TrEMBL record:
One of its GO terms (molecular function) is RNA binding. The lineage of its organism: Eukaryota, Metazoa, Chordata, Craniata, Vertebrata. InterPro entries: NOL11, Nol11_C, NOL11_N, WD40_repeat_dom_sf. It comes from the Eukaryota. It comes from Himantopus himantopus (Black-winged stilt). This is NOL11 protein. Residues 1-335 form the Nucleolar protein 11 N-terminal domain.
Amino acid sequence: MAALCESFTLCGLGPSGGVGLGGGLLALEPGPDPDHVLLTDRGRTATLFKVSDQKPLGCWSVKHGQIITCPVVCNFETHEYIAVHDDKVLRIWKNKDINLDKVFKATLSADVYRIHSLPNGGPVVLFKGGGVRTLDVLLEAPQQEIENIISDEVIKWSEAFMEGQQPVLIFATEKDGDFFVYVQKLKMNSLHKYKLEQQELSKPLSFTAYIKNQIITLLCLYSNDSVYKVLIPLQQNSEEEEQILSKSLLLKLSVSGSVLKGTSFVVLDRDHIAVLGSLAASGEDSKECLTIWNTKFQTLQTSKELPLGTSGQLWCYEEKFFFTHGKVLTVIMYKCETSSLAAAVGKLKDSQTPDVSSFVNWNTLGDEELVVSLQSQQSVALKSESKMTLRSKRNTVAEVQPDTLSVGQLLLNLKDASTTVFEDELRQLISKAQMPDFQATIGCVITALINRCKTNPKYYPRNFLLHIVQTRDLSYSLCPDLMAVALEKKDVHLLQICLQRFPDIPEEITYACLKVFLSISESYLQRIDVNLESVICYIDIEFNNKEVKTEIVENGFNAELEQDIWDTKITKETHVTADGEFCPVGPQKAALLNAVLHSAYSETFLLPHLKNLPAQQAVLFLRYLYYLYVKCSEKINTTLPGIRSPTISQIMDWMCLLLDAHFTVMVMLPEAKELLSNLHKFVRAQVRFYSELNKIEGSLRELQRLNHQKDSQKYSIEVLELI
């Protein structure tokens, strides 16, 4: 089974992208670290990016008038970068180098087509005339003569592999409509030429290859919307100059009457390939999309529409797809699992995807349950395939439960029932705790409630939904539309409970909850029910809505510094204590924000959303995090009292995230200047305090050792001088 997962933007490609990619992207290559990629634009610039942080780590440009003519690569053995500009000029530099004019330069005797860098074999240079040299050999004599092997042929594609300790290079050429394949084994200085079997009325558009057990598998994407496979054995006894390579059809890129016009593709594993192209159905406009296909069972596994268009290029590293989408470079994570018939038709259980197959017992549910469960989660194609598969199960279901309506049939019968009858029947349904597929049934019930909310905007069973969420072990993937409706209705109590109980909430929804919580007024929150158990122990509320100061234990900062820290302006929403300490939000909003702090997230996928938080809300949230940070620091164990109170680690992580997302804005905002200054002073004071503790650590250990050595039986007074 294959699935597309979270996506995010790595960088912009236009002039506003800030990384010099205004001329478009020439290529993307792996960097010195698995989390790094090297981007080469169609001009003068190469940029090293850290993918998880979406941050450039280095950017290098050749002079005006010069053009980088092949992708920049990393030498994995020396951690140096290699570029060729103006076809013949070789440049080699390291991370610390800034000006490429001052780095190593060598002018070669022939035009370079591409450099391939192998993790254990070093860089290999392929020239436009077909000659091949390792970088080490080339640097010994940069002006050495390079043989011209392919005469009038033009190289269309190349790739390099390691077979044991042997570097192997393969490249494809074209001449007058004929395509040729060359395989070069560098250490043996062995070169074999093959001619690709012609295909009527079509030609190769893209190539990819992999090597296993001394056999190169070459895959070719043809203009007739098909992928063909060619096998090339490395062990060749024949010395014929040219052999004909026969090919076999691997995959036809069509599904349900729609045809995919592929532009590029990559191999994911032995049974899956990803194809980027335009999906066109008869009578409809074509739509660019990224697709994953199962070649073993000839099925389309998943697809993602790309409405902003692409350049037609697709790269794949470390289980991530990279491609241009509009004016940005987009990254989509994916996963591939063992290929099986169950996975190919969508029946393999998978706890990580919001698919009904992850919790439904496919042997007991009938067609109607599937329809209800899938109506907002499955595509039309997958739904029709699954219905065909399940149709054969209907007789079995009828035999097992002859007197009982299926869940799907019951929900269909209740579609037009009155609200009272509808909710009563659903309550009876979920009360059958021992029934098979209980979790799936709960998911279907919530789906039915949400669907009624969508068709009737005035209907919203808040208490019923709240009861289900509080009493059942649910997850976001089981009812993905629930939180969306709660956000639309601004049902903050339900959102709070979902954040506390759902383990798999997407970062986009977490951000949406945070934005809603920060935007709602304190006066509105005071009128609604919110669970305050996470704040009641450190924000005590009296009838005058003032915070009562809890017990303070000094933890390394003096009174003068405290006075300096808390000498700040107090807004209208501030809850003030007698000695000047304040919470910038009310208890209800604090409890909601605590629920966000407790939710699981990935920094990579949350940070792009957090950057969209309005500046005023970002400042308010940072004030609250700062307040919690100080509260934690007041306690010797740096732990806030109460149930589900945020930990010091959660507070610090969110503060860092927020500052990463909004630091430039924070520096520019006058109202944030004092907050940042206070935060800096507080952190500095704590660093000094722990530094002082480190200084006396040796003395304290010596005291501990002395106490262990003697056992005083009588009362005594000792004076120990710490020097």
